[in-house]
Specification:
Layout: H1 6-25, H2 35-46, H3 51-68, H4 75-100, E1 112-114, E2 121-123, H5 124-148, H6 151-160, H7 163-194, H8 203-218, H9 223-233, H10 236-249, H11 251-260, H12 270-300
Antiparallel strand pairs: 1-2
């Protein structure tokens, strides 16, 4: 993989990987819709949003939200859906983070790290997985479980509210996740220190390390940045809802998207098609961010 020209490696890791992760997460989303529901959704995005379709479509969007992130689907299924969403979000940000430190995702399978104390060697992948699974995934997953469980309480507003109101909900959703994430990071750092695994077993030192860690994360300079920024990406259900509304309310945009991405099954599996559109935009966004990051240091020098 390292023999590939840099641009193609960038295109694969930063464009394809995030897009594929998002698309696969919602690949079977249409299972929560009936045939009539799929036809209604396609009718909404194939035409302008009008009064005859509005009330039915609002109900359908409410069904979409509660079909994934509601206790009504059962505890196990709800926890699984949130886990998949959390994992996808982290994968997207990991692909961007490793590019910023000039490490390929594939390099982790071959690079070994030697412990300076014991002399033992292990794959870099195992160290990354240990950090991701031991801290990042757990904290991010708990945050998403708590915040996403509140979706049913505001599902009516999300379904029938204006695009501006939906964007405000996205802001509140992200803010709530960040605040809860910071609180859990304090608890997590103190816990690991108490167990003697870090900070020389000093919980106070661990707690004091959280603020600078968060500051560096905001600058995207450590692994905590992956978990922090993944919280925004885990708002994919809201993004898909916004995409549906954009397609339904703006004929020109809908015609452009359906024409440019004619191979997607908008009529037979509208949710798969719409989530694929969101995935493509996500891949392009991740690729653009990586390109900008790669250019900035040169511009600064």
């Amino acid at each position: 993989m390292s023999d590939l020209p840099g641009f193609f490696q960038l295109l694969f890791q930063q464009g394809f990987v995030p897009a594929a992760a998002v698309a696969l997460a919602f690949w079977n989303a249409d299972k929560i819709l009936s045939k009539d529901g799929a036809k209604l959704l396609y009718a909404a995005i194939a035409k302008t949003w009008d009064g005859s379709l509005a009330s039915q479509t609002y109900a359908l969007l409410d069904q979409l939200m509660s079909g994934y992130f509601s206790w009504r689907v059962g505890l196990i299924r709800y926890l699984w859906n949130v886990f998949v969403l959390t994992l996808v979000s982290i994968v997207v940000l990991l692909s961007i983070y490793f590019y910023t430190i000039s490490v390929s995702l594939f390099d982790l399978f071959f690079v070994t790290i030697t412990d300076p104390v014991s002399g033992d060697t292990h794959l870099a992948l195992s160290g990354v997985l240990g950090q991701v699974l031991g801290n990042g995934l757990v904290v991010t997953y708990i945050v998403n479980c708590v915040v996403l469980s509140l979706f049913p309480l505001v599902s009516t507003e999300l379904s029938s509210g204006s695009l501006r109101q939906n964007l405000f909900f996205v802001f509140l959703d992200t803010l709530a996740k960040v605040l809860l994430f910071v609180i859990l990071e304090f608890a997590s750092f103190a816990l690991f220190a108490s167990l003697g695994d870090s900070f020389n077993g000093d919980p106070v030192a661990a707690v004091l390390a959280v603020p600078p860690t968060i500051v560096e994360a905001l600058k995207f300079r450590n692994m905590t940045a992956v978990y922090l920024y993944s919280l925004a990406i885990s708002s994919f259900p809201l993004f898909i809802l916004l995409m549906i509304k954009l397609l339904a309310r703006h004929r020109a945009f809908s015609e452009f998207v359906r024409g440019a991405m004619f191979w997607l099954p908008f009529e037979d599996r509208p949710l798969r098609a719409i989530s694929s559109v969101v995935a493509i935009f996500t891949g392009l966004f991740a690729l653009s961010v990586s390109l900008v990051i790669s250019v900035l240091p040169a511009a600064g020098g």
